[in-house]
Amino acid sequence: MSTDLRFDQIRLPPECEKLRVELRAFIAEEVAAGTFAPDRPGHGDTHNPAFSKRVGAKGWIGVTWPKQYGGHERSFLERYVVTEEFRVVNAPVRLHFVADRQSGPILLKYAPEHIKQDILPRICRGELCFVIGMSEPGSGSDLFAVKTKATKVEGGWRINGTKIWTSNAHIADYMLALFRTAPATKENRRHGLTQFLVDMKSPGIAVNPIYQMTGQHDFNEVVFDDAFVPDDHVLGEIDGAWKQATSELAYERSGPERFLETFYVLAELVRALGPDPDLRSAEGLGRLVAQLHTLRRMSISVAGMLQAGKEPVVEASIVKDVGTLWEQKLPERVRDLSAFLEQQESNRVTLDEQIAFATKVAPKLTIQGGTTEILRGIIARGLGLR
Amino acid sequence: MVTESDPIVAETAARIFADLADPQTINRAGDERWKEPLWRALSEAGLTLAWVPENLGGAGASLNDGFAILAAAGRFAAPVPLAETLLAGWLLARAGLAAPAGAMTVAPVRPRDRILLNPDGSLNGRVSGIPFAKDSKHIAVVATDDSGTSIALVKTGDCRVSDGDNLAGDAANTVIFERAKPIASARAPAGFDPSALLLMGAAVRSVQIAGALETILSLSVRYANERVAFERPIGKFQAIQQNLARLAGEAAAALAAAGSAADTIAQAIAFDDTVLLEAASAKIRAGEAATEGAGIAHQVHGAIGFTKEHVLHRFTLRLLSWRDDFGHESYWAATLGELIARRGANNFWPLLASR
Questions:
Q1: What is the pLDDT of residue B220?
Q2: pLDDT tens digits, B201-216
Q3: Residue, of A29 and A215, whose pLDDT is higher
Q4: Phi-psi region of A142 (alpha: psi -120 to 50; beta: other; left: phi over 0)
Q5: How far is B79 from chain A (nearest CA, A)?
Q6: Residue A359 · residue B228 · CB < 8 Å
Q7: How near does any CA of chain B get to the CA of A363, in Å?
Q8: CA atoms within 13 A of residue B355's CA, in its CB half-sphere
């Protein structure tokens, strides 16, 4: 517990820049072929099986994982470059992104060998979609209130209960889920939860869509009615999942996806302002650029420290806290800065559409993956306040 | 040139400040007698001329070492012209000029101020907000004429120096050059113009701001854990915790941005678009963090933080003052925004992702 914050200076090594060139060439080809349009974030599929397979074939999924499981044994900084280059162009990475970011690393750490051999290479080929089974109707920020029950039976576990807000469950192959295997104890309310790998094609699992205020369908309710999960699908310690969560969270919280989700409105604003903006627009743009640049340097620093084997848990939480607030406010700032633009600007319609879409997306940005309030509690604990 | 920083240099600086510039002791002192031993120790350790090569009379430390010294100085917010003397030595060395002993400052420090080099080699101009001019024996100056940029060393006594101070009460003077004769001058190297001093100064102030923010974070957390209200330490209240987490976020942003700018400048071969992105971003973001962070620290401390007796103001008022030196956040924001607009949308992300 300390107020010492650390942001090592990370200079991206030459292999990152080489990789970036390859990524941009690949993206240019995909855009030219009509796979997706960087300036149309609200259109088209955010998950695209054929695209994910092409990304996998390039070696850009499981970038850091061991080669024996289909990975590429490259650095976290190279993975960082892959993530940011896809994110700034709104590439449809949804299908493989969660598996690549967090499910795969958890399986690497806790799954039995034969499961790793089976599943990880398929993730790397871009064939599998993973979802996160944490939230429940009665358990959101308060994760330890999870009620969905796993009951021990011959050869495995019977699952009963409901997960909610499960992004991509309707297209998912697997869920990494948190189920209750024992009641919490008086001494430790975090006790009694176990992490499971769930095959979403198993009988007894129903996925019901929940439509969002953006008009998109991403969320789902997932109902387990006596679904069976075999013993070898238990990940880590029974009743002790709470011990497993912390270090992975640093990766999940600090990546470029935590501040680039609405980036397109800023790029489009630059296009709309043209080469010679008025003073007000220039100043407004400059501040946003400075804030974004700072977030990126913070985030790269955390990636570099993770690569070096450090555990910048507080710094990672700060990146998400500051980053998600920034990407949430960005559409409003761009709306203000574009208020005096001529209506006949060639990209005015595109910009207005983008602002409208980003404005509707904005409220979720400080909720998904841990709310601002929860993150700040974690930061406060790290500072020695709790 | 060595680009990595040597931890011993930063540790030496931190130890000297801890021994001779303890904020509580200075705050209680009724006079300025503490200044002389502090300056002597800094000077004897070679820290004041860290950025001056050995052949020009300095310690020949790396740029990163100098920035590490300034981070330590920022954490103590010591009101001596260390940053200014480092900058002056660095500036003089650009033109191969030797650095004199003693405290120095630099000019100009505001974007629209200009000093003109007359045909007879003397200087004319009026520059404002020069930090510690009253306390410095010499001023290192960037001057321009029709044929380009020159760097000159001027005795402060050969200029007119007005009274004035910044928010924290440190000297910040208007300096008037009226056919002032430099004691040394030379042409600046190719590619060096008045904006280079502003960029370097912006990085320097950002590093100091980040250091002072680290201190007010630690002061505020300690206070919140000690101060009891409603029968518990106020740090147990979620409202206070959320504010302190925000303060940590601001300190983190300033640290990362300032560190990145310093590291970029330490490696740069020219003051190009990348340096402008880095130094401008650092000054903008550190300035914003100073505003937000100082406000939160005061809110957490309540009335005691508003007293002269408490050390908090030593940090918050300098944080707020430093925002004004070497370009206000708005100046750099406009400059950076113009750069991005000029480069166009297609070159926007490639510039951001260039490092």
A1: 98
A2: 999 999 999 999 999 9
A3: A29
A4: beta
A5: 23
A6: no
A7: 19
A8: 23
Predicted confidence at residue A247, as pLDDT, reads 58
Whole-angstrom distance, CA of residue A11 vs CA of residue B186: 35
A286 contact residues in B (CB cutoff 8 A) = 280, 284, 332-338, 340
Q: How many CB pairs under 8 A join A and B?
A: 176
Specify which residues A31 forms β-bridges with: none
Distance from the Cα of A156 to chain B's closest Cα (Å) equals 42
Asked if residue B108 has a cis previous peptide bond (ω within 30° of 0), the answer is yes
> For residue range B328-338, what is the model confidence (pLDDT) as tens digits?
999 999 999 99
Name which of B63, B216, B234, B355 to mutate to probe chain A: the one with the most chain A Cβ atoms within 10 A of its Cβ: B355
Q: Which sign, positive or negative, has the C-alpha torsion B70, A301, B322, B91?
A: positive
Contacts of B337 in chain A (CB under 8 A): 277, 281-287, 289
Q: What is the reported pLDDT for A46?
A: 79
DSSP annotation of B345 reads G
Output the six-digit token pair for B161.
């120096």
**Coil, helix or strand at residue B168:** coil
Contact (CB, 8 A) for A292 and A261: no
Confidence band, pLDDT 50/70/90 cuts, at residue A345? low
pLDDT tens by residue, A38-81: 988 876 667 899 999 999 999 999 999 999 999 999 999 999 99
Largest CA distance in chain B: 73
8 Å CB contact between B245 and A379: yes
Q: State the complex-level ipTM.
A: 0.97
Residues 6+ apart with CB under 8 A from B206: B254, B257, B258, B261, B262, B279, B282, B283, B285, B286
Residue A154's identity, in one-letter code, is: E
Report the C-alpha gap between A293 and A259 in whole angstroms: 10
The answer to whether A279 and A286 are in contact (CB under 8 A) is no
A90: its two tokens: 């709104």
Nearest to A282 among B257, B334, B345 (CB): B334
Which pair of tokens denotes residue A349? 């319609």
Taking alpha carbons only, the member of B45, B344, B302, B352 closest to residue A291 is B352
Residues 248-277 (A) with a CB less than 8 A from some CB of B:
266-268, 270-271, 273-277
Q: Do B336 and A286 touch (CB under 8 A)?
A: yes
Residues A219-233 have a mean pLDDT of 97
Sign of the CA dihedral A162, A167, A173, A175? negative
Cis peptide before B23 (omega within 30 of 0): no
What's the pLDDT at B134? 97
Chain A residues within 8 A of B345 when measuring between CB atoms: 267-268, 270-271
Question: Would you state the structure tokens that stand for residue A304, as one six-digit string?
Answer: 């570099």
CA distance A29 to chain B (A): 16
Which has the closest alpha carbon to B109: B199, B229, B223, B20? Answer: B199
Assign B141 to helix, strand or coil. strand
